């Protein structure tokens, strides 16, 4: 039996929610917020989004979604085009090739794995930016970004888990 038009639209909308939520978080993350005495560094929001969906629902955010988020991030953050896309797609590839490791694991294990993935991602991104633009990022903002990324993950994971529950409910 073929699905009706409304069922098809509903399924399409549900599949776009992870990307749309990730896009919204990216746009919120680029809003300049400066606090005196703090480094100008923020968490790697798109990495958190792509990592979560690759671990828990790889069917909801494919390589095209990661590539698109990365490209938009590069444009908005004025980084060399393709660097963020490469990092996000490599993140997806690492998670998907080790998917059996992630299935059914407790939150602390996936958080620990994120710490490893995020460390590799931030170092690779800093290296790529240095090679492509000649601009060397100071270690302070890199460390701050890494720590903020790890601290923000439990909050975003909770939000994404609630979203995932809503996505699996029948209309």
UniProtKB/TrEMBL annotation:
State a single Pfam family of this protein. MreD
Q: For this chain's UniProt record, which GO biological process terms are given?
A: regulation of cell shape
In terms of domain of life, where is this protein from? Answer: Bacteria
Q: Note the InterPro entries from the entry.
A: Cell_shape_determining_MreD
What keywords appear on the UniProt entry? Cell membrane, Cell shape, Membrane, Transmembrane, Transmembrane helix
GO CC annotations, alphabetized: plasma membrane
| Transmembrane annotation, as ranges | 38-55, 75-96, 108-137, 143-161
Localization recorded for this chain is: Cell membrane
The UniProt entry's coiled-coil ranges are: none
Q: How does the entry describe its membrane topology?
A: Multi-pass membrane protein
This protein's major location comes to membrane
Entry's family note: Belongs to the MreD family.
Q: Output this protein's name.
A: Rod shape-determining protein MreD
